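Shipment paperwork, digital attachment
Item: protein structure file
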Amino acid sequence: MGGTRFWNYDAEEDAVADVLRLSRAMTYKAAMAGLEAGGGKAVIIGDNRRPDREALFRAHGRAVQSLGGRYITAEDVGTSADDMEFVRLETDFVTGLYGRSGDPSPMTALGTQQAIRAAATEVYGDGNLDGLRVAVQGLGNVGMRLCDLLSQEGARLVVTDIDGARIERAVESFAAEAVDQEEIYSIEADVFAPCALGGVIRDETLPLLKVDIVAGAANNQLAEPRHGEALRQRGILYAPDYVGNAGGLISIYGELRGWESSQALQKVRAIFETLKRVFEFARAQDIDPATAADRMAEACIREAREARIARSRV
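Attachment content:
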């Protein structure tokens, strides 16, 4: 399971690299969330603001249908529930639909809020977000909803985005402070919450950070695995992205399994406890949380594979 991303990549090779990284992250995400599913992803190359969408997404639906159920899609960056309704005309292997779980963004935002709480508990001994300064990078569907949740808890927000209208909305709605896109990395804050695209924690940006915690909704926030240890060496706690942002996947999985909304909400809120276990394992092993989460996810995947093999022999 995993969403369809619509993005204007510079080259096809960039799109392939992104979709492979994303699908791997979705696999680990499902494992850490305790879902009986693997991870997948799709990307469409192009301008996601184009208005003529039906033919494009119906073609995508036919591509999904051709896989015979091995991949189940949903919304992601640049796509919406409206787009998934077009996909639905061509295949049953689609979730995030109107009248069902709908847009998974609210659940992703809720899970990210739980991740920030878990990280704050680890660093400050208290998950209370009142008064914490949070720098939010990206004000799309998830980032804006996360700002709403954080604001309701009394967090002080610093925001940036590529879209000026979104910034204005956040400033007006949440009394947020607006900064330029590059300035967000050097803001003094308690938490840096990347909620746009991946690869934002890299050699150039990591030395600029003046925060205690990195916890956001973006996928693949670390440009390289070594950046997880680099954050630890700087005394910055990293909440592994695929653990904290699993709320959307949980939502669409619940739709597929026919869960009640309360069951999905309970599962999303459990992200808090999952991250606490990741932090505990990282401390015990003297490793960074990203490596700890990878090892825990890989153990889950091995166990699931072994159980499947055992069932096939019965």
